[in-house]
Records
---
Amino acid sequence: MLHWWRYVPGADWAHPEGPGSTVAGRGDHPVVHVCWEDVAAFAAWAGKDLPTEAEWERAARGGLEGARYAWGDEFAPDGRLMANTWIGEFPWQNLKPPEIRRTTPVGAFPANGFGLSDITGNVWEWTRDFYRARHEPSAHPCCAVTNPRVDDAAASFGADEPGGAHVPRRVVKGGSHLCAPNYCERYRPAARQAQQVESAMSHLGFRCVIRPRR
C-alpha cells in the first residue's frame, strides 16, 4: 500500500513540514496548518470575517456563472495551467518540478474575473457554514434563503467518520495542490468538502472578507 499521508507531531503554521522546517522565504505563500479556531481568531483580530459558502462560491466564479472552473470550461486553455493542482496520477505519479509540489506564491497563476488570485487550487479554504451533505430545497434555486445556509453545529456531525461523530464540521472550498482528476476535482467552484473544525493540514488555509460597517 502506498502511504501518501502521515501525522507529523510539531507541524504548525510556522513549521509546515514539522520541527526544523520554517516559513522563511514563503512570506507570499498561503498560511497552512490552521484549524477553525485559528482562522476565526485571526479574522476577529484583523476586524474581518470568514466568507460563507455562498459568498465564497460567488466570488470564486468571478462572474462566469455556470462555468466548470473559475476561468471557464477548459481545464488548461491552450495548454496553460490556471491553478496549482496535482499533475499526474494521484498519489503515485507527480509530474511537477520538486520546487512547486507544495504551495505556490499567491498570484503565481492568473486571477479570476473578480481579480482574486488562487481562489481555487493551492490550498483548501475555510468557510463559515457548518457542513451538511445536501442543502435544503429552495423556492428560488439561484439564491440562498439564509446565509450561512447551515448554522447548526449538530447537523454537521459525521457519524461515518472514525472518532468524528461529535466533532463539528465546516465547509471548505477550492481544492488544493493535491487535487487531481483521477482522485478529486474539487478545485471546481461548485465542489465542497467537510472538514472537522479541530483539524489543521498542510494544504488547508483561508482568506478573509471585509464586511461594511452597519
---
Amino acid sequence: MNSKKITTLFLDIGGVLLSNGWGRKEREQAIKHFKLDSGEMNERHHLTFDTYEEGKLSLNDYLKRVIFYEPREFTQEEFTAFMMAQSTPYNESIDFFKKLKKKHDLKVIAISNEGRELNTHRVNKFGLDKLFDAFISSSYVHMRKPDVDIFRMAIDISHTKPERSIYIDDRLMFVQIANSLGMNGLHYKGVKPIKKELKAFKFSS
C-alpha cells in the first residue's frame, strides 16, 4: 500500500471519462458520412492535428486545411456539428470519480490533449466543470502529452507533491511518464479495474 496520503487526482478525459474527441474511430465515421477520401484526409489530419491540439491553430483553420481545401457539397458548420456530436460520455466513470472526489475531498485536475473548441464543447455538454477544479489542456498551455513539461506544470499548479497524487490515463505511455516523475500512475482499463487498484491507496480524508 502507498504510505503517502493522496490529495490530488489527475485524470485524462478522452478514453477515461468520454469517448475520444476526434480519434481514428470518429474520423472514420466522418469519412463514411461525408464520402471523403480516407487517405487524403488522414494524411492532412496527421500533418495538422498536433498544431491544433497545442492551441496554435483554430478549429476553423484546421478544417480549412484538412477538409475544406477544395469545394464540398456540405458546409463547415455541418461538418463541425458532426464532429461535436461524436463525443459520448462514460457515465459510470464520471459518476465514480465525482463520488471519489466528494468522499475524500480531492483536488481533481484534467491533463488532456484537446483542441480548444472541442474541449470547451465537451466540458460544457457533459458538465465536467462539476468534476474538475482545473483543466491543463494542451490547447491552453501549448504543450501536448507526452511532453513531460505538461505533467510538471500540472504538479506545480496543483501544489501537490508527486507522491501524493494519482494520474489515470488509458494510454500506458503517459502513465509511465507520470510514474517517472514520482506520481502514482494507473493505466485505465475500465471502472471496475480502477476501483480495485485505488484500494491500494490511502486518501487524505
